[in-house]
Design goal:
By secondary structure, the protein is mostly beta strands. It has a domain of 163 residues: Sulfite Oxidase, Chain A, domain 2. Helix content is 12%, strand content 32%. It is built from 7 helices and 26 strands. The strands form 7 sheets. The chain has a 5-stranded mixed beta sheet. β25 and β26 form a beta hairpin. The chain is globular and about 80 Å long. The N terminus is likely disordered.
Length: 434
């Protein structure tokens, strides 16, 4: 119950529903009473029940453990916690595809680097950092060339941001709901602490020409991934990321350097960055015309939908889990928005008929995921679990029907509709459309 004691220090939202607060108090009280067979003595001091058996000494307590390692790895018992790999062309190009973060198996908000989602268009290049350079050129007064060593001499900033693929949650756009894990549906989103150099600092040093309005970001992979980026965004909060979660970027995350555009679709966060070319207008590259555009109901396609919408998903309980008995549970999940901070997450257990505000785990950061929690007493009744996020700009996560009305049935990008998990009387959980 350690996590619950920690969360006790957090202030509940001022608009918290009375029944939710009552459930939370009962949750904590019952958990304390049942914890480890502890009872309260006449003096009010915790004591072990008289019939508590002697504590057995397990085998691992009888012999020395393994020696220290130069690089830590998870416990062998956590081996099942891994990404789901979806290769687009396994025979032609096995390096093309994606791997999804197992959201349902994680807690907190930071994604372990080894579980951060991947999306590759031609595999992961093996780049020698001593031979890799970033060139800033085009409509600048002084074209500049930066090595990794040079960038590391600049003042660094550290920020916590999510990255989400524009195609995340596309599995929920099909005609029938897939019965797969939360991560398999929504796992193309991950959150890390990123450290690097602000793009604005490098552009200022290069000196911008008045006609520079966009920049073309180009990657060093064989797919030559490239995207056009408005100059205003580059001067706002863009970063050349060199570190992830305290260590150098991993190859699959863009080593030795990647572009980071907080809150904007993942494909624009160009990995293995090799050039920033200042240009007067967008280049309409293959990666921003053949895909990453939104199909409209009138048959047209909307280009440059950069900012990611407000979104949330319940990670626990979710498909693949089973309610193990009647009583109190904690509903928990993640919420995020490309426009800023999450200000509220409401949770429904009846398919949206009624809502209760969840507690937001602090700190609540802009353009980062926020963990939400709310206690729920399950008495064996059928339930439809949903979460609905609201951000600081007033954007509200849409229902499935509202999202569908905005796009053609063939659209697979920017899906941020409310997720519904069905809990049946036998405790099983399914993905449903509601």
């Amino acid at each position: 119950m350690a996590d619950l004691k920690t969360d006790e220090d957090e202030a509940a939202p001022p608009t918290a529903h009375a029944s939710a607060a009552s459930d939370r108090r009962r949750f904590l009280a019952r958990g304390a009473a049942l914890s480890a067979g502890v009872v309260t003595s006449a003096a009010g001091v915790p004591a072990f029940a008289a019939d508590t058996p002697a504590i057995a000494v397990p085998s691992w307590s009888k012999a020395p453990g393994t020696p220290m390692r130069t690089y830590g790895t998870p416990s062998r018992f956590e081996e099942p916690v891994k990404r789901v790999v979806a290769s687009g062309y396994p025979k032609i190009s096995p390096g093309t595809g994606s791997s999804l973060t197992p959201l349902q198996a994680l807690e907190g908000t930071i994604t372990p680097s080894g579980l951060h989602f991947e999306r590759h268009h031609s595999g992961v290049p093996d780049i020698d950092p001593l031979q890799h350079h970033l060139v800033v050129h085009g409509l600048v007064k002084r074209p500049l060339k930066f090595s990794l060593e040079t960038l590391l001499r600049y003042p660094l900033v550290t920020r916590t941001y999510f990255i989400e693929c524009a195609g995340n949650s596309a599995r929920n756009t099909g005609p029938q709901p897939l019965q797969v894990s939360c991560g398999t549906i929504h796992g193309l989103v991950s959150t890390s602490e990123w450290t690097g150099v602000p793009v604005a600092q490098l552009l200022e040093e290069a000196g911008l020409e008045p006609s520079a309005k966009w920049l073309l970001a180009d990657g060093a992979d064989s797919a030559a991934m490239s995207r056009s980026i408005p100059l205003d965004k580059a001067l706002d909060d863009a970063i050349i990321a060199l570190y992830q979660n305290g260590e150098r970027l991993r190859p699959e995350q863009g080593y030795p350097m990647r572009l980071l555009l907080p809150g904007w679709e993942g494909n624009m966060n160009v990995k293995w960055l090799r050039q920033l070319k200042l240009v007067p207008e967008p280049h309409h590259t293959k990666d921003e015309t053949s895909k990453y555009s939104d199909l409209q109901p009138d048959g047209k396609s909307r280009q440059f939908t950069f900012v990611l919408g407000v979104k949330s998903v319940i990670t626990h309980p979710s498909f693949g889990m089973t309610m193990t008995g009647h009583g109190l549970y904690e509903i928990s999940g993640l919420a995020w928005s490309g426009t800023g901070r999450i200000t509220r997450v409401d949770v429904s257990t009846d398919g949206g008929a009624t809502w209760n505000p969840a507690r937001l785990q602090t700190p609540v950061l802009a353009k980062s995921v926020t963990r939400f929690r709310i206690p729920w007493e399950w008495r064996g009744q059928a339930a439809l679990l949903q979460s609905r996020a609201i951000d600081e700009k007033g954007n509200v996560q849409p229902t499935r029907s509202a999202w569908n009305a905005l796009y053609s049935p063939g659209n697979r990008y920017h899906h941020n509709a409310i997720q519904t998990w069905s809990v049946k009387a036998d405790g099983s959980i399914a993905n449903v459309y509601a």
